[in-house]
Each structure stands twice: as structure tokens, then as C-alpha cells.
Amino acid sequence: METKALIRIEDLHRHFSIGDQTVRALDGVSTSIGMGEFVAMMGPSGSGKSTLLYLLGGLDRPTAGTIWVDGEALSALNENALAVFRQRDVGFVFQSFHLIPTMTALQNVMLPMVFAQVPPSRRRGRARDLLALVGLAERLEHRPTELSGGQQQRVAIARALANNPRLILADEPTGNLDSRTGDEIMQLLARLNRDEGRTIVIVSHDPSVTNYTTRALHLRDGKLVA
Amino acid sequence: MTIRDLLHLVIGNLVRVRGRVMMTALGVVVGTASFVALISLGAGLQRQALATLGSGATEIRVTGGVAQQALGASGGAAASGGASTPQALDSAMLERIANLPGVVRVTPFERVLAPLDVATAQLCSHGIQVLGVDAEALELMGLRAVAGGLMPGAGEAVLGARVPEALARSLPRESADRVRGASADLVGQTLWLYLSRRGDDGAYSERVARTKVVGILAPHSSALDFAILIPQRDASALNTWSMGRRRDPALQGYPEALVKVADVEQTGAVEARLVGLGLHVSSAREQAENLSAYFGELQALLGGIAAVSLLVAAFSIANTMLMAIAERTREIGLMKAVGASNRDVLGIFLGEAGSIGLLGGAVGVLIGMAISGAVNALGANAGVVEPMFGLGAGLRAFVPGWLPFLAIVSATLVGAASGLVPAARAARLVPMVALKEG
Fold it and tell me: The pTM is what?
């Protein structure tokens, strides 16, 4: 069965100027990712994997090259359109969770829906369902400081699912967690991929994640290696 | 993001750092409070000044020249320099004035010529104006007496509202205060008028006229308040003696007359017609306009001073916002990652800055109004403030209806404007860069 390509990347470059030096974080990457895949992007530190992930999520713009998501070129989108893309099509999970500390778990999960103009009545219900999905039904009114690392990451995953995006991007999701909690998180992500068919791309330097993913891409010095 | 959600986020963010918010808003409070207090002070003074013009709003004071006959000039031609030499206010002219549309009544005043001293048993003064009037005219002109009657008969006099006080100036201060309070006692007392003249042969002679005070007028206008009013015939008789020749103002022209207009709107038109008749006019309307212009400038100046302190508050808000954004860079990156547009971020930070302005403005308005009230409470009990422009005693502040509204709106706009540059900066952050901060 041929999986339809959700993401297509063509000759992607991302260069940074540090002083008078140019760092080539991504140096010509081309690949595609099919719908429903669970892809791990592996590589040593500085290989450009996080950079690639952020570009996929519309959180940064490439120096050269094109990214198509579901046939739409991201580079053709202006700032406002890119924001809409981030709202609707992408859910991001970060290594350090990045929850808003003064908001409860429920409010954190509702936040993306606020920006997507989801009516307040629907927001609450959906947020509750999502937190139940990630196993935190008992922790709705807790603030991040009252949650463990694993629990915070679960909230972050629920938040990433808030607007029902096609694509979940996770930057070292288990990086700040112990191995057991990390496994739980990976199991959760695998479950989302399997049961709901969500396309997930995660970045990790931990080889054990490949136990859960369906495919692995390897990067070194800004290029894909076999 | 809906407005409701925006407000929710903004309020949540501000409550988070409420100590800092209150400190920053304090600057706006000071600026707004001084704005409200100073402007209400100016407005109160203006109101007081205009109030004293009161009935003067429908009166026009007309001055005329001396008729050609009195000067002994030959020929009956009217004076050719129309603007510089007014026409005479003789009985023919008075008739013409009375027949003008909009004119209710015209009352001429004869002026008893100086030098003149005035004295009662206890008091004396030099330089108080004595005017001759038609006795019935006073009541018809809408004047009222606060003591005694309004109609001076032969050998009687009615005093203007401020005459007792002017008479008392010759006394030491404590006694003067006592006399001011007891001005009503002057009714029934004898008033002596001391006149002097130089005869044709150069000889100097004096005359004393005796009148009885029969009434004291209610405050009217600065002209009448400081005048002693006696019947026309008495005044003409005194002038005949002073000038050494027969004085008949009906033929020779009165020095001035008071024209009562039907209503305030017609004052301008009547004034124009009077000028057309070749007379000089002055009215409270002109005074009112001058006062309004003066106080308008005063208020603008005061408002400008207060605006400066508001400007300082603006810098305080801008600084707070810059700090807040520097601290919340990651949060901004996160918001963009979950789908906030540049406009959403701009709205949040502008909302925070504007809310600080709104909060400070609201509190400032309340404090400013309290100061205004305090001035009124204290000013009413203060000793007599030396009056200017005929103001009543004491200081008064008045808060015009538009002032609180203007103050709050200005404070909010100042807040939002100060937050504009920081908010724009926040809106333009690249999410990835922002997230990597810290």
C-alpha cells in the first residue's frame, strides 16, 4: 500500500550567521514523509535535526529549499497564514514542556483553541477529553508546578492535540524524563499513531525510541545519511 | 482570538504581576489626578467669573458724547468722526434706542462730576461715583435691593452693593470687617456729599449736599456696585453748580445709559444697531467672551502641565512592558507555536499596556475629583479671598461632565501608545529563536 506523502522536503538549507562565520545547520536535505508514519529523526548533537523539525512546524524559515505540507508550500505562506498553519495543522511537543506556569492543565490545553477561535463551550469539553486520553483526568486544575515531569509532558501532548492537527512534531520529548517515564510517553505517542493514524515526527538522540517508531531518518552535519 | 478571550488573557497576565502593575500605574494615577484637579480648578474659576456677570448678560452699557449745543458749536451737523466721537445721548437719541427691535428699556445715568468726597457719620471715602437715575427705572431694570428701598426720592440716595465696603476702606482693618457685616445699618443714615469747584474768577468754593440713605442694592455689575445713586434732578442740580452753567442732560446728552435687551440671543444684534446709531457700547457679552478666552487659555496651560506628568508615566509603562517582554520571550515563542498570530501577540501586549493606563486613569480620576471636592470644602470656609473680576469669596473647583471621560480615555491611550513599540517587538519574534531564550 502506498502511503500518501504528507510532507515533502526538497533541498532544504538553513544557515546561521554567528559573527562572521556561517553555520550550515541544514545543508541540502531532501526527503518525504507519508501520512500516518511515525518517524524518528536521529543524529548527534548539532546534526540539524531540531532545526529541521522547527522548519517543518513553521516556527522558522529556511534559507533555501522548499517544504510542502499536504501540497502546500510553507515558504509561500506569509506570517498570518503561517500562524494559521501552526494553529490547525501542527501540534508541537517540546523537550522542556513549555507549559504556561500560571495556567492550570486544562487552561494550557485550551490555549491553542483560544487562538483558533474555538467557542468557549466546546473548548472545555475537548480539553477535558484530551486530558483523559493522556491519562490525566484527575489533574485538570493542577498547575505545572504541581505535576511531575511525565505528567507535564502528557499535558503538553494533550495541548498539541487540541486543534486536531494532522502532524505532531516532538523535539526530544523524553529528554527531560527518566527512562521509565520516557517509555510511557513513547507508548502514548505510539498509541496515538496507531489508533488515530496521526503522523508523528520526533527528534531524539536516544536510540531506544526506534522501538516505537515505524521509520528512522539519520542526520549528520546537516545532511541525511543512509 | 475573540475580544473576550483577549481580555481574559490580559487580565490574567496583569494579575500575575499585580505588584508591578500597581507600581507602574501609580505614575498614571498622579498624572491623571493632577490633570483632573487642575482643570476642575480652572473650570471652577471660570464658572464663578461668568456667574457674577449674571443679569449682565442681557444688558448693554452705552456711552455717548456731548451734544454739539453744549459745546457751543455752530451748526447742527453731526460729528463727522463717527467712530471716535460718539453721538450724544440726548432725549431724542434715547427715544431712538428705546424703539430699536429687541430693546426692552433704556435708562440714562447722569454722572455727578468730580472732585467729590462722600461721608457718613463714621465713614468717608474719596472717589466714589455718584450717578443720577430715574427712580422708577431701577426696579424696571431688574435691580433689587438687599436693604431698604429702591427708589431714591429728592434728597435721598441708594447705595450700590459694594459701596459700604468701599466706604469702610478708610478705616483700619478690624473696623472695616465689622462695618462690612453691618452695611444694612447704613440705611437711614445721613450721607454727605462734598463738592468743590473753581469759579470763573479762579476762586475755590465748596458745597455740601445732604442725602439720606434709603436703600442698598443687590450686586449687579461693577459699574453700579460701586456707585451711589441719587435722583436725576438732584444730580443735574449738583452739576449745574459745579459747571457754573445750566446742565440739562436731556438736551445736552447723558454720559451713559443702560439698555436692557429682551433676551441673550439678541444682545449681539442690538449692540450692532447701537453702534450703527453712532454710540459706543460695552456689554457683559464682550466681557464674558474675554473671560472665556482667558480661562480657556488658563485651562489649556494647566492641562498642559498635567499632561507632562502623564508623559512621564508613559515612559514608566513602556519600560515595564519592555521588561515584561524580555522576561516572557519563551512564553511568546510558545504562544506562537500553538498558533498565536502576530496580531494576537500585539493585541495581548497592547491590551496589557492599555489596561495599566485605564486602571491608573480610573483611580486618578477618582483622586482628582476628591481633590476638587476638598478644595470646595476648604475654600468655602476660607477667609475672604481678595476678589478679582468680581469673584465671590473663596475658591471653587468644578468638574465638567466631559473631564473624567476625557481623562480616562487619555490615560488608556497613553498606556496603549507607550506599549506600542514593545508590543510590536514581541509580535515580530521568530518562534524558534524566542523558544531558545533562556
Answer: 0.67
